[in-house]
Structures are given as structure tokens and as C-alpha cells.
Specification:
7-stranded mixed β-sheet
Length: about 600
């Protein structure tokens, strides 16, 4: 067999690269032909006889020979980002496994990983991409390991542990069975982790006993996530929690659920509001209760839950394109796709930007279609003076952890239709009334009283949160709008968005680097935007397998490949916004830098 040429990314021979070079030099499958490295002093030199072919800064523009790649860098953020950049330009990033490692046939290891001498990866383990499993690691059965994790030598895990992306587990640490180590966690050498660790925390020592552990949350400014919940002071929940405790009614649509429904009816000027445990179940139920059949028109550019609600009801989602500016459903394409099998429109107020509600209402009336809005992002959005919530047959808001107002998990459905609401009340109670005689295939659609109390308290801040997000959005627009190749989702005149997400679109040619490269560069600097919504529904395997691979969705295709949701949250400091803007500006190739501040 001809050995395959291999380029190592990272040339630090006193680090991971030395170990990897040793491995591939003894493996007849590979012929190492050179390095890429970010240090300027190495450019044009030779390391251990092999040429340094260029800088990692220039991966996208270098003319490199036909070869596979392996990123041999210990730092999780740098390795993950370089892996991503190489894949985004179509390069193969290979996994290397030392011949003395034991990997179960029932384990799965992703791309770009390294498994060192004597390591054991046991049955049922699923390992992500760009993961370092160092010498002598024991990764026990059914482990789940996220992307760009680093398990230092001698780490031993019990069964079924989960280690989320970019976590680092130090030398000789032990992780007990069933423990979850959150994203970005740092576990110090020699620790014993006996309970789950939440994301972005450092733990050291015997992590069960408070006395013996050092635990520190990294300051927000270190890692900028796509969002963070803004939560009222913990103490503000206590009176309600005490009352729930004293009353003994913790569920079944009791006092706080009713209060929350009333509050929403008043705030949004809607006739009826119902609480739900999440927007997904509310969407599923409303499509069932409306008694739909055949086809439902939905945008493909949305979160999975929108399309899934149709599939759960054995309806056929027909994918509609989006407007290139507002990113909400394209009414012209929608009209073209109406057939005699169409029974409903399920439109989405994408990222909080309201749809063209006037035109949608008129199309629905003309074709006798039911009209439901997935308003998961849009609690507090306005169409002129009128709040989102009173359009269509029903609108559904999410209160999950990434939303502007959150109670952990939860949702609200609003409608003017009294008969529909009565059916939904039964539906969210398994389909039964007080007599337990079910008249419809319902579900458990109950929000707990604790969640309702949190939502009520959090709702008090809704206007303040939306105002703050609009300020953040304005600042982003001012700073980044003038840069060639960048544009934002457009808001029709007179509409108010919640800015649940701050969607930026990157035109690779005009900006100089593409969306995925930009994402990698931002990740290297501790900034973690998200590709909402890529892949769009019609490109998800679930939908392709059902031959629901929508056709004629050119705008969706383009937007999905260009979109990046930038960090935005209601308590975001101006310095954090500037940090994101600086990082985006500096991600451009030098030649493209024009005098834009
Ligand atoms: N329709 C639409 C259009 C939707 O977007 C959604 C949900 C639904 C329907 C369904 O609503 P629900 O059934 O969920 O009520 C998130 C949310 O989990 C999901 O609710 C949301 N849409 C979707 C767009 O985004 P992920 O998997 O991207 O979130 P995750 O866990 O990666 O979080 C992103 C960042 O937010 C993290 O890096 C850290 C931060 N975060 C997140 C959570 C959950 C926190 O700081 N605290 C938290 O509690 O899905």
C-alpha cells in the first residue's frame, strides 16, 4: 500500500507534535511531508528534517500539496478551530490511533482525533472530532465525548460519563460513572470527579467535598457564548416558592400558571393564553387539535422543532423559501406552493423579527388555510403597536434557556379562538376533562408551578431586556454594518424585534473569509457564535430520508451557508460587543483591511 502524505499542523516537537510524529513515522500508512505552524520564526525552516510549509494563519490561501492533515496541538480551542478551518476548505483531517491502543469495535471515534499508546476506548463510547486521548487513558464503556476535548495521560473514567466539548481533564484524574463534565471545564491533575460539573468551571482535588475543592467560574469576559440568560435575583423567587410549598400545589394548572396566563393576556392584549412545558409540545398539539391533514407550508430556515411538529402529526411539511432581507417566510414562494392538499401555514417570526402578518392573513383567508405562528423567539415583538401573539389562529412562544425571558423550560400559546383554546386545554391534559374520559390523543402539556412563578417574575423585566438588546443590536450594526461583505437581518419599518438572535450574514468573497473560517477565528479568541439555522430542515438527514428535501430554496441555501448568530444577551456589556467586533474586523485578510473603524 502506498503511504498517504500527511501534513502535521503544529510543529512543537516538545509537545503533542513530537508524539504524533513518532507515531506516523512508524506507521506504513503515512508519509509525513511537513508542518504548518503559527509561529513566525518557524516559517521556511525545517523541523526534524521536515519543512514548515507555511503559517496556520494562511491555511485558506496556501497552495498545499494533496495530503491529509492532523492537528497536533494540545490547546483545545486552537485545535478545534484549526480542525474546523481545514474541514471547511475541504481538507481531510485524519484520526491517528497508536497500535498499542485498544479501541472496541463498538466504539465510535470522530475525525481528527489522536489515541495514544496504551489507551483503551471501550464498547459503546462515542468520541467527537479533534479529541486528544493521551497515553494510558481509560475511556470506559458508553462514554460520550464532545469535540475538541483533551484527556491528559492516565485519565480514567467509569462507565457512561459525558465529557462535553472543549473540556480538559488533567493527568491521572478519575471521573466516576455517570458523571457529566460540562463544556469548557478544566479538571486539575490528579482530581477525582464524583459529581457532575457545570460548564466553564475549574475543579481540582476531590470534587465531592466542598472543603477540598477549588472551584472558580471563569469570568464572562473570557468566553463569550452566543447567549446567556438574564435572570432576576434569586431572592425574588422566594415568596412564590414559599407559597407553592405551603399550598402543596406544585402542578396541574394551579395559581401561578393561571397568573402567568392572565399576565400574558394583558401584556399582549390577547383573548386567551395557555402555559406549556415547552414550545415543541405546544406546536405538536396545536397542529393536532386544528385537525389538519395533507401538507403544511413551513420555512426550511428554522429550528428543528417547527418541522418536527408537522411530522409528529403525520403531516407533510412543504418547505418555503425566505426573504433574503428579513429572513422570514417569502409570501410569493408560499403562494406558489399552495396545492389542494395544503391545510395550513406554519410561519416563524425568525430571531424575533415579525413575519408579514398582513399578507399571511390575507393568503390564509383566500385559500381557507389555518395559520399558526411559531413565535418561539418573539415574546415582546411588535408589528406597529400590536404585539405578536394576536395574529393567526394561534401563536407559540418559548421560554427555554436561550430565550429573552426564560424560566428554564416553558412556553405560552395565545389565541383568539375560544373553541380552539378549550380543545387545547383538554389536549395538554392528556386529552381528558375532569371525568378522565379522553376525547383526543393529548399529551402531558403541563408547566410546573415553580416554572410559572419564575416566568412571572422574569416577565417583569421583558421591556427592559428588549430595550437593552435593541441597544446591543444598534451597536453591532454601527460597528460592523460598513464592513464590505457583512450585513444583518433587516427589520421592516415600524416592527420591533426582540433580538433573540443577532443574525449576521457573511459574503465570503466581499469579506475575504467565509463564515466557517470566521467562526473558527472567533472561537480561537474565546467567542462562540452559533450557526442558527444551518443545516436548514430540508438538508437534515431526517427530512432527506423522508424525501422531503425541498426544492427551489435558493435563498435558504445561501443564507444558511452565510449566517452566524453573534453573542447577544440582555446584560451584555459594551466591552463585550467591542470585543466581538474587533475579532471580526481582525479576521479579515490583511489585504482587505480598508479604513473602516
Ligand atoms: N421554534 C423555534 C424557531 C425555536 O428556535 C425553538 C427552540 C423551538 C421552536 C422550540 O422551543 P422549545 O421546545 O425549546 O421551547 C437552543 C435552544 O435550546 C432551543 O430552545 C432554541 N430553539 C434553539 C434555537 O437554540 P442550542 O442547542 O443551540 O442551545 P445551547 O445549549 O447550545 O445553548 C447556546 C448557548 O446558550 C450556550 O453556549 C450557553 C448558553 N446557555 C444555554 C442554556 C440552555 C446558557 O447560558 N444557559 C442555558 O440554560 O438550542
Amino acid at each position: 500500500m502506498q503511504p498517504r502524505p500527511l501534513i502535521l499542523v503544529g510543529a512543537g516537537l516538545n509537545g503533542q507534535a513530537g508524539v504524533v510524529l513518532d507515531l506516523v513515522r512508524h506507521d506504513p500508512c503515512w508519509e509525513p511531508i511537513g508542518f504548518l505552524d503559527g509561529r513566525p520564526d518557524l516559517a521556511g525552516t525545517r523541523v526534524d528534517g521536515l519543512p514548515v510549509l507555511g503559517s496556520t494563519d494562511d491555511i485558506e490561501s496556501l497552495e498545499l500539496p494533496d495530503a491529509d492533515f492532523h492537528v497536533s496541538i494540545g490547546d483545545n480551542a486552537a485545535r478545534g478551530a484549526l480542525f474546523h478551518r481545514l474541514e471547511s476548505i475541504g481538507r481531510e483531517v485524519v484520526t491517528l490511533i497508536h497500535p498499542t491502543a485498544i479501541v472496541s469495535e463498538r466504539a465510535t471515534i470522530g475525525r481528527g482525533c489522536y489515541v495514544g499508546p496504551g489507551a483503551i476506548v471501550n464498547a459503546g463510547a462515542i468520541v467527537g472530532n479533534a479529541v486528544l486521548i493521551n497515553s494510558g487513558v481509560i475511556l470506559e464503556h458508553d462514554a460520550r465525548v464532545g469535540d475538541a476535548v483533551h484527556l491528559a495521560p492516565g485519565t480514567a473514567t467509569g462507565g457512561r460519563v459525558t465529557i462535553e466539548q472543549q473540556a480538559f481533564v488533567g493527568i491521572g484524574s478519575v471521573v466516576l460513572p455517570d458523571v457529566t463534565i460540562g463544556e469548557g471545564v478544566f479538571v486539575g491533575a490528579g482530581s477525582t470527579v464524583v459529581r457532575s460539573v457545570e460548564p466553564n468551571v475549574t475543579v481540582m482535588g476531590y470534587a465531592a467535598r466542598k472543603r477540598n475543592i477549588y472551584e472558580a467560574r471563569r469570568p464572562d469576559v473570557d468566553r463569550l457564548q452566543v447567549t446567556r440568560p438574564s435572570l432576576p435575583d434569586h431572592a425574588s423567587f422566594e415568596p412564590a416558592f414559599d407559597q407553592i410549598h405551603a399550598s402543596g400545589m406544585v402542578s396541574n394548572f394551579a395559581h401561578y400558571n393561571r397568573e402567568l396566563e392572565r399576565e400574558i393576556e394583558l401584556r399582549l392584549s390577547v383573548d386567551h393564553a395557555l402555559t406549556f412545558p415547552n414550545a415543541t409540545s405546544a406546536l405538536m398539539l396545536v397542529l393536532r387539535v386544528l385537525g389538519l391533514s395533507g401538507e403544511v407550508l413551513v420555512p426550511s430556515f428554522t429550528f428543528a422543532a417547527t418541522g418536527h411538529a408537522a411530522l409528529w402529526n403525520e403531516l407533510t411539511p412543504i418547505f418555503v423559501d425566505i426573504d433574503p432581507h428579513t429572513l422570514t417566510i417569502d409570501c410569493d414562494d408560499l403562494e406558489r406552493k399552495i396545492t389542494d392538499r395544503t391545510s395550513a401555514i406554519l410561519a416563524v417570526h425568525t430571531f424575533g423579527n415579525p413575519c408579514d402578518t398582513t399578507r399571511l392573513a390575507s393568503i390564509a383567508a383566500r385559500h381557507d388555510l389555518r395559520l399558526v405562528y411559531d413565535a418561539a423567539h418573539a415574546l415582546g415583538s411588535l408589528v406597529g403597536e400590536r404585539a405578536v401573539g394576536s395574529f393567526g389562529d394561534a401563536e407559540i412562544f418559548s421560554l427555554s434557556g436561550t430565550k429573552v425571558v426564560t424560566c428554564g423550560e416553558g412556553a405560552l400559546l395565545t389565541s383568539r379562538d375560544e373553541a380552539l383554546i378549550a380543545e387545547l386545554r383538554r389536549g395538554r391534559n392528556y386529552g381528558a376533562g375532569a371525568d378522565y374520559d379522553c376525547t383526543l390523543l393529548g399529551l402531558n402539556g403541563k408547566m410546573s408551578e415553580y416554572h410559572a412563578a419564575i416566568a412571572l417574575e422574569s416577565l417583569r423585566s421583558l421591556e427592559r431586556f428588549i430595550a437593552a438588546r435593541n441597544e446591543v443590536a444598534l451597536r453591532y450594526r454601527e460597528r460592523l454594518g460598513p464592513i464590505p461583505g457583512l450585513r444583518f437581518q433587516e427589520l421592516p419599518e415600524g416592527h420591533r424585534s426582540t433580538y433573540k438572535d443577532m443574525a449576521l450574514l457573511i459574503d465570503a468573497e466581499a469579506f475575504g473569509v467565509d463564515r466557517d473560517t470566521l467562526l473558527g477565528r472567533l472561537n480561537e479568541r474565546g467567542i462562540y457564535p452559533k450557526r442558527y439555522f444551518d443545516p436548514p430542515l430540508h438538508r437534515m438527514r431526517l427530512y432527506r430520508e423522508r424525501e422531503l428535501a425541498g426544492e427551489g430554496l435558493p435563498v435558504t441555501e445561501r443564507v444558511a451557508s452565510q449566517v452566524l448568530s453573534l453573542p447577544i444577551y440582555s446584560h451584555m456589556e459594551p466591552e463585550a460587543i467591542e470585543r466581538v467586533c474587533d475579532a471580526i474586523r481582525e479576521a479579515r485578510p490583511t489585504a482587505n483591511l480598508v479604513a473602516v473603524r
